[in-house]
Design brief:
Blueprint (H helix, E strand, L loop, with lengths): L46 E4 L2 E2 L20 E4 L4 E5 L2 E2 L3 E5 L2 E10 L4 E5 L1 E4 L3 E6 L6 E5 L2 E4 L3 E5 L7 E4 L9 E4 L3 E4 L2 E4 L3 E5 L19 E3 L4 E5 L20 E2 L1 E2 L6 E5 L6 H7 L28 E5 L4 E9 L4 E12 L4 E3 L8 E6 L5 E9 L11 E6 L6 E4 L7 E5 L15 E10 L18 E8 L6
Parallel strand pairs: 4-8, 5-9, 7-10, 8-11, 9-12, 10-13, 11-14, 12-15, 13-16, 14-17, 15-18, 17-19, 18-20, 19-21
Antiparallel strand pairs: 1-2, 1-7, 3-4, 6-7, 20-23, 22-23, 24-28, 25-26, 26-27, 28-33, 29-32, 29-34, 30-33, 31-32
Length: 477
């Protein structure tokens, strides 16, 4: 019999200039009612989001206002115990959060307010990172229940202010049971150890580095301990060559304390030393590691109808060659005249140009999309062991001929950017639209005193890098 219980992580996106999407997910469930008289949760200290829904005091008893197959809420948060229950949720949207100037998509995001997860039923998250971010140095963290979590991306549990003796408890020591977590892009437990008393975790990285130590990477007791019938599945790679009791990430950080059974089609399976026979144990979970198609995965296919947005953008570069003139020679007066400025350099004619707008220093962005796009413009000076050009900065000016585009100057952390209108601009449905083009010219400025001499910078040294990014939403702080 073929058993295919793991979903394939499907990645979708539009390949434009230096853009990327990180995806991941997670879930849990509710097992009982909670009439909270005094809430222990301090909402000012953090936040919890499930998909695009924020958990609040008013909705925490039944976050989605729906019940699962057992009659309990599909998602519930207990304020008194900082416990999040997920009971058969199916999350397709995400919480979009700006971090370090970039946006990340979270299917579940919990900052400091979740100490316990209880998983019931079948739970699935399509896109986005599932992350529990905890900072308490006194809490005991746990993931319990007998349900299943399916993540298309990463399952992350990060603790920063915990002593080295802390563990994330997975499953029930008394009942010898635990949930199943299946993460397509891996499982990460950071800053804390892991003790499994039952259940299955599938998705640790192939190097066995599914748990990092964000406080101190040398704590020798931060390793994974397996008990009862718990199973840990690691992507095949470096971990498969290690003995389970001596599998170290470094000289003092032990990775797995258990026993290693045979590799199965891309996975290394670790079990507790007193666990039942591997084949029986996996069969109880609906897995048959001897099947030839064990490495196959499956995922539900979803759909809806809507006119598609098609993004297509061209970027054309000039040569970007420049020369710094500290002085110039006046052939009429036969004397040197102070200049001190960067100039556009025509390498084919071997001469500098008295212009700041030429094909050589031109960047042209053309939008063929049926939607408005934004082209960000950013320059960074280069630094190597031999030279430092970070004092050299750059600026962009827009062509005055482009009346249908707008250049917004850099403001704070937001770089310069061009606004390019949609190419779907025809008033007659039978007539094709016109692509929108934005043209800018780049000029460097600034230089360290030591580089101003004629031989200060060797010809065609890299001064820096210009980055053009294509965004579908207006850049903002």
């Amino acid at each position: 019999m073929k058993h295919k219980i793991f979903q394939r992580c499907i990645r979708k996106g539009i390949a434009v200039f230096m853009a990327g999407v990180a995806a991941c997910s997670l879930l849990l469930s509710y097992t009982g009612g909670a009439d909270v008289v005094e809430a222990a949760t301090d909402w000012s200290q953090g936040e919890v989001w499930i998909g695009g829904t924020e958990v609040t005091k008013s909705n925490c008893d039944n976050i989605f206002n729906e019940t699962g197959a057992d009659g309990n809420p599909t998602a519930h948060y207990d304020l008194a115990t900082s416990t999040l229950y997920l009971n058969g949720v199916n999350i397709r949207d995400t919480y979009r959060r700006k971090e370090g100037g970039e946006y990340k998509e979270y299917s579940l995001y919990a900052d400091r307010l979740v100490e316990h997860l209880v998983i019931t039923g079948e739970n699935s998250f399509s896109e986005g990172i599932f992350e529990v971010y905890a900072r308490s140095s006194t809490a005991v963290y746990s993931i319990t229940g007998t349900g299943r979590v399916r993540c298309q991306g990463n399952f992350c549990w990060q603790v920063t202010e915990a002593p080295p003796t802390k563990y994330l408890i997975f499953g029930s020591e008394a009942e010898k049971t635990g949930p199943t977590i299946d993460a397509g892009n891996g499982v990460k437990v950071a800053g804390i150890g892991l003790q499994m008393y039952g259940g299955v975790i599938k998705g640790f990285s192939k190097e066995g580095k599914g748990f990092d130590h964000v406080i101190n990477g040398t704590y020798a007791n931060r390793f994974v301990q397996l008990y009862n019938d718990s199973i840990l599945m690691v992507r095949k790679g470096k971990a498969s060559t290690k003995m389970p009791t001596d599998a170290y990430l470094s000289s003092s950080t032990k990775i797995v304390m258990g026993k290693n059974n045979t590799d199965y089609f891309g996975w290394v399976v670790y079990m507790a030393r007193d666990a039942k026979n591997m084949i029986i144990g996996l069969d109880d979970l609906g897995l048959d590691p001897t099947a030839e198609d064990y490495f196959d995965t499956d995922i539900d296919v979803l759909g809806f109808t809507e006119d598609a947005t098609v993004y297509s953008v061209d970027v054309e570069w000039g040569a970007m060659t420049f020369q710094y003139e500290n002085t110039t020679w006046d052939a009429t007066e036969h004397k040197t005249i102070a200049g001190a400025e960067w100039k556009v350099y025509d390498s084919e004619k071997s001469k500098v140009l008295d212009t700041t707008q030429d094909a050589i220093n031109q960047i042209k962005v053309t939008n063929h999309s049926n939607a408005e796009v934004y082209a960000t413009l950013d320059y960074a000076g280069a630094k190597t062991d031999d030279a430092d050009y970070t004092d050299t900065i750059g600026g962009f000016t827009k062509s005055t001929e482009d009346t249908d585009t707008q250049l917004t100057p850099k403001a704070g952390d937001v770089p310069d950017y061009l606004t390019l209108a949609t190419a779907d601009n025809s008033t007659d449905a039978a007539v094709a639209g016109t692509p929108t083009t934005g043209t800018v010219f780049f000029m460097p400025s600034g230089i360290k005193e030591e580089y101003k001499t004629a031989d200060g910078i060797a010809k065609w040294s890299q001064l820096g890098t210009i980055t053009v990014g294509i965004k579908t939403e207006k850049p903002s702080v």
